[in-house]
Specification:
The chain is mainly α and 365 residues long. The chain has 18 helices and no strands.
Amino acid sequence: MRRIILTNRHKISELLDESEGAARKPGTPEWYIRILTESISLQQISAFRKTLAQGDEKWIQAWLELGGLSHLMTAINHYEHHHCLKSLVEVVCQRELVNCLKALLNSPNGLQAVLSQDNAISGIFLNLKSNNVMMKSNLVQLMAALAMVDEKGYEMVMHELVYFQKTTAEKRRFLTLVKSIKITVEIDYKTSAMFLINALVNAPKELDDRIRIRKQFLDIGIEQIITELRAIDKDEEGMEDLIVQLDTFENEMQADVEEYASIRPGVELLEAKSVFAAVEERFKGTPLENTYLNFLQHMLLLPEEDKLAEEIGQLLQKVVHRAVILKDSDEVDKMGRLTLSEIKKNCKHKHHDHKHEKKVQVENQ
């Protein structure tokens, strides 16, 4: 037994030596893990990007198994979290790290690694606040590509946008993205941002989903921004690509309006009065008429403008969106239980906040 234990210890020691040796050998997966963790230069980042772009799946898989994706995300987010973009070199380093992630997503193993982890790209959209326009342009292109891969990729990108909204106290979802198009001078960034918006709006297969997401962009002024973008001199470098994205937004919107009109003739989908009239006509004389009226009566009790109003609106939208795709009574019952649980939890939280606010008011009197 003693001999076996000594042998095993000897083997473990050898393995540790091999691992440490690999971490010191430039170009190995272990070496890139080490320098990502400790300190990495622009030259090393560029070499890393080229290595990933070569598509050696065995090498990439070995790097992923060492926790490479997590280390790469930490390196990308490091600059923004620590506000340390002090030089042009650091600006380029951050951009190149995003390009490394882009190269990784072009690898089957890399893409699978990202899609298989719900929090794989957690916090990446916080970099949208950065002044590094080169990096932001690559970032939004990357997110657009991920959103169009499949439903999982789309969900991940939407989740990151919701996380961004909550973390930064953004008043309306997508507002920072849309505003960035207006305030950023570079045409390339405007094109990339419109590319992402088109991906978010047009990727869903269901017409209702596309209409719902597009409506959120329309509500925060994307049409006005598109009008302003079209006023830019067409001879400016990059305008040809930007115009393609602007045309895509408007053409796809028109196609969806026409598709909806073929399903619901006479309904102006983007006009509230038209939609209300259509709903009223549809349910008139049916068992749902009183339910619809009761729903509208309760809507009159909602606050008009504040953070709570938006949170309630999002909750109602989520519930209705789920409800209209239910297929049978069992699904209705299951959703009813889940939704009631969510509402009770939310109400309990709001009740606690209200009591706290009341207590503070009393103490301040």
